Amino acid sequence: MDIPQLTDFSAASLDAAFGAVLLEAQRGKATAALDPEAFRLEWLGRKQGRLKQIGDAWFKAAPVEARKLIGQRFNALKDQIEALTTAGADGATPPGTSGFDVTLPGTTRRIGVEHPLIKTMAEIVSVFQRMGYSVGLGPEVETDFYNFESLNFPPNHPARDTQDTLVVAGQESKPLRDRLLMRTHTSPVQIRTMLEQAPPLRIVIPGKVHRNDAADATHSPVFHQVEGLCVGSDITFSDLKGTLDHAMKAFFGSAVKTRFFPSFFPFTEPSADVQISCIFCGGKGCRKCKQSGWIELLGCGMVDPAVFEAVNQRRVELGRDPVYDTRKISGFAFGMGVDRIAMMKYGISDIGLLYSGDMRFLEQFA
Ligand code: PHE
After folding, report:
1. Distances in whole angstroms, Cα of residue 295 to Cα of each of 119, 280, 281, 339, 342
2. What's the 102 CA to ligand 1 centre distance in angstroms?
């Protein structure tokens, strides 16, 4: 080991000599990140440490008058080098010392991104917000009454079979309407909204729903829907068509066309399924639309008067006015699956990826 010699004991010369030793220690520290103990021994070891040897050499050479000055500086230097040994494991030096390696990468924190499902759901919701809809939410654990009975699915009616329901265990002692289940659609929030609010109303309801479906590339027991409900006087099927046609154009682009087919839902009459012109081929026919040029996207219809009746009846039970007078009030409702729309939009072929929590997948949406 090289011990620097000291022959000039002026203050300026001491500054330079001590500064040079500190700089060397700092450089050594920057490359010693992997073995901090070796660094400590090399510099601060009691017998063989560099500081000890430099101290001995300089004291021996110094005239008596200079020894006090050297002693003070030596203590300060020792403090500085000790500080280096306790600096962070990343090799950064404490504040006030210079010489850390500016080329080392900083400590980065990974920032999350919006999940593609949440992003898609928010975009759909905002299309309707711009048309004056407000946003409503409801519980995922529902009662039979809100999920089925009030929506005109009578007990034991076969229409219930179309929604494979996950029920909560241990509910058998309750009356059927109070039994708990995982909601199979967002439609119960239509009822909850009409119990709280008088017409006119326009509301969109995004949320998670559950069905007892085996998972495969296109099915997941948990998925997402956006529901819509518009109720007032003189609401017609034309309003429904115009609203959904506009919404599909706003979401997928103005070239998209819509068409409506007769369908069935217990809570709407008439009911329709809505198709949009294929967003992949523009309607010419391709593998994605099975050569038809159209993609089925949502269910909708005019609110069945039986739903308004159920709402009125429940409102009376709750001490509220039965304000959904079926002679004066009409409305439409619609519901769409968010997962399928997100998969189409982002070209995702397996729904399970949306629920895998796999960062390699999710990072692609950053
Ligand atoms: N709730 C229906 C479903 O999940 C969709 C729907 C909503 C249909 C509103 C018509 C009106 O299949």
Report:
1. 21, 10, 11, 14, 14
2. 59
Q: Cβ(278)–Cβ(286) under 8 Å? A: yes
What is the distance between the alpha carbons of residues 91 and 324, in angstroms, rounded to a whole number?
A: 71
First to last CA, the chain: 53
The pair phi, psi for residue 299, each rounded to 5°, is -110, 150
Q: What is the pTM of this model?
A: 0.72
Q: How far does the centroid of ligand 1 lie from the alpha carbon of residue 60, in Å?
A: 94
Cα of 298 from ligand 1 centre, angstroms: 8
Is the link from the previous residue into 221 a cis peptide, with omega within 30 of 0?
Answer: no
Task: Kindly state if the Cβ of 227 falls inside 6 Å of ligand 1.
Answer: yes
Residue by residue, DSSP assigns 85-99 as HHS-TT-PPPTT---
32 pLDDT higher than 80: no
DSSP E strands in the chain: the ranges are: 134-135, 141-143, 180-182, 201-210, 222-232, 258-265, 268-277, 294-303, 330-337
Query: In which band, very low, low, confident or very high, does the pLDDT at 93 lie, cut at 50, 70 and 90?
Result: very low
Distance 110 CA to ligand 1 centre (A): 39
Q: Is 301 in the pocket of ligand 1 (CB under 6 A)?
A: yes
Ligand 1 pocket member 116 (CB < 6 A): no
- Determine whether the shortest distance from the Cβ of 188 to ligand 1 is under 6 A: no
> Is the CB of 266 within 6 Å of ligand 1?
no
Residues 160-193: tens digit of each pLDDT:
887 899 999 999 999 999 999 999 999 999 999 9
For the stretch 108-119, pLDDT in tens is 887 888 999 999
